[in-house]
Design a protein that fits this description.
mainly alpha; Rossmann fold; Glutamyl-tRNA Synthetase, domain 3; Glutamyl-tRNA Synthetase, domain 2; 3-stranded antiparallel β-sheet; two-stranded parallel sheet; 11 strands; 45% helix; Glu/Gln-tRNA-synth_Ib_cat-dom; protein biosynthesis; aa-tRNA-synth_I_cd-bd; nucleotide-binding
Length: 494
């Protein structure tokens, strides 16, 4: 690949980092690292009205939690800073003025009321989507229609204005997208985009093009929603005489019920929408990253499990799909279970301990490190070690309704027979294998299968109808606790 690869993730600090934004950052990061390039974080905070105070901090925290490290950023400057667009305001004004001098942009003095009247007028004459463009600009108040001296007077007197891009009337704008191939747009479908707003702040379009050029960005990898803005950007590159970066537009993330995964849809389908939700719900970052990598890309074989380093090794833009990718929440849970199982009890213990403490439990370290491997095959998220495993610390207060369906007429007799057997064991004999042998003896004697004894036994000891392997659980709980709980259940459930 000629030249060095430099990519940027350029979120607007208008809210928490959306899960789609995290995927965009990930693809940029994987592409940069696969090509020994640089990954830059740029904060696009030109929309002052929608600016949210803690959003930038949330973006940085979310990326670092995910294992996505930036080479240059607001807190980690390189040679092309500053990295917040609000701190680069003067640069944009210069470039906007350059376009005006070249005849590729113009001052527009229209008030909001005049713009509304123009839209109303066009709607009445049968134009369903009125816009400020090559045709309408000639009947508006701008430096193309007003006499030169009036324009100068307005500027001197400090009248409010915006600077608009002068989009040609009949031109086909073509560019090659690294994911979609050649894309073409007719310029007559584009409006004369505002480049500099009346507060002197640039719009996304101007700031984006100027920054990508000055920061030597080689590839712009962003969401599909920006595809329709790209022709305006291509025009600006042409007017400035700059080589545009290569463009790649990522497929949309779709909701399981169809359509784009909007905030509303995500909420109704129980899908957390912001990266912060995944942090707070204590997902494994490796699981989320592995899952997101496959949301629109695949390495072209049947493999599904890869560390960040492996993903970097495998990633390429030509394997990114054009069509939308469905957010399968169950698949994410599957990834999470896998990464939990990969971790040792020593690694998990500090996190499990802090969750236990939140639940008012002070776990003994040695005991907890025996519980973790036993429960690993059953948990989906790290909190389950505590919430599903609460019975390891206290007798069940009630019995789950679902589990009670397994409690049958002969349950008491079978449990009583089992208690009689295990009461004979001394503490040293109270081991999983021995406890399983005793189950076999009781069911043979009563001529029943495993279920009729195992199910009520699990309910009695844990209060639930599911959970970790039963006899090792009894061994860990110990003789006294096990017998006490069975006797309590016999008394309470009868």
């Amino acid at each position: 690949m000629e030249g060095s690869v430099r990519v940027r993730f350029a979120p607007s600090p208008t809210g928490l980092l959306h899960i789609g934004g995290l995927r965009t950052a990930l693809y940029n990061y994987l592409f940069a690292k696969n090509n020994d390039g640089d990954f830059i974080l740029r904060i696009e905070d030109t929309d002052q009205e929608r600016y949210v105070e803690e959003a930038e901090e949330d973006i940085v925290k979310s990326l670092l939690w995910s294992g996505i490290e930036f080479d240059e950023a607001p807190g980690k400057p390189g040679k092309v800073g500053p990295y917040r667009q609000s701190e680069r305001k003067e640069m944009y004004e210069e470039y906007a003025e350059q376009l005006i001098e070249q005849g590729n942009a113009y001052y527009a003095f229209d008030t909001p009321e005049e713009l509304d009247q123009m839209r109303e007028r066009l709607k009445k004459s049968g134009n369903p989507a009125p816009k400020y463009d090559a045709i309408t600009r000639m009947s508006m108040k701008n430096s193309l229609t007003l006499p030169q001296e009036e324009v100068e007077r307005k500027l001197e007197e400090g009248d409010e204005y915006v600077i608009r891009l002068k989009v040609p009337r009949r031109e086909t704008i073509r560019f090659e997208d690294e994911i979609r191939g050649f894309v073409s747009f007719e310029s007559k479908g584009l409006d004369d985009q505002v480049l500099l707003k009346s507060d002197g702040m640039p719009t996304y379009h101007l700031a984006n093009v100027v920054d990508d050029h000055l920061m030597k960005i080689s590839h712009v990898i962003r969401g599909e929603e920006w595809l329709s803005s790209t022709p305006k950007h291509i025009l600006m590159y042409e007017y400035f005489g700059w080589e545009p970066p290569k463009m790649a537009h990522l497929p949309l993330i779709m909701s399981p019920s169809g359509g784009k995964l909007s905030k509303r849809k995500a909420e109704s389908e129980g899908i957390p929408i912001n990266t912060r939700d995944y942090i707070e719900q204590k997902f494994e970052p490796e699981a989320l990253i592995n899952f997101l990598a496959y949301l629109g890309w695949s390495p072209g074989d049947d493999s599904e499990l890869h560390t960040m380093d492996e993903l970097i090794e495998l990633f390429s833009l030509d394997r990114v799909s054009k069509g939308g990718a469905v957010f399968d929440y169950q698949k994410l849970i599957w990834y999470n279970e896998h990464y939990l199982r990969e971790k040792s009890a020593n690694e998990l213990f500090p996190r499990v301990r802090s969750i236990a403490e939140e639940h008012g439990i002070q776990p003994d370290e040695a005991y907890m490190k025996e519980i973790i491997p036993l429960m690993k095959e059953r948990v989906s998220k790290i909190e389950d070690f505590v919430t599903m495993g609460r019975f390891f610390f206290e007798d069940p207060k009630e019995y789950e309704d679902q589990a009670m369906k397994k409690w049958k007429d002969n349950s008491v007799d079978l449990l009583q027979a089992y208690v009689d057997e295990i009461e004979k064991l001394n503490v040293k004999e109270f081991k999983a294998k021995k406890l399983k042998d005793k189950i076999k003896e009781v069911i043979n004697e009563h001529d029943v299968g495993f279920g009729p004894l195992m199910m009520p036994l699990r309910v009695a000891v844990t209060g639930m109808g599911y959970g970790p392997d039963l006899t090792p659980t009894l061994e860990l709980l110990g003789k006294e606790t096990t017998i006490r709980r069975i006797k309590t259940a016999i008394k309470r459930l009868g």
